[in-house]
Amino acid sequence: MTAKKNYLIYVVEDNRLYNKLIRDYLEKNNYLNVKSFYSSDECIQSLKGGIYPDIVLQDYYMDKMNGIDILRKVKKLHPGSEFIFLTGNESIDVVVNSIKYGAFDYIIKNEFALDKVGDKIEKIIRIKELEKNSKQIRKYKIAFAIVLFLIVIASILVYVVNIFGVQ
Known about the structure:
By secondary structure, this protein is α/β, with parallel strands linked by helices.
């Protein structure tokens, strides 16, 4: 799928080795628009340029903020950003809160985690593509309704002119 390169993916992971592992996995799978950050501050600072990620792969425990803090800040600026938490924290309260605040999913770091991340990213992309197509269809429906309305009005005017002989 060539659309993969059009989606901006942030990797927010303070473990430099795991951060590189994620980036390499994404690049190997043709996700070409990837930015990585080693701290929550770096991630938040990058948003000041007005460019927002489509997808954020986020470790839960970071230096100054936890993952939910970052999620809330990013979503406040860009509600369309989707979050996938990728973390070693298995606390059910953390999982529930993450989903409650708008995370798309929560994946525990293990030997299958990156494959799960790939699956989740594909789902997010499919959903975003469907939403984009749905918006285009809505626009076409509105345009069609306007044209149809104008045709009906023109037909009524022609009918009235023919009946009353107005010239």
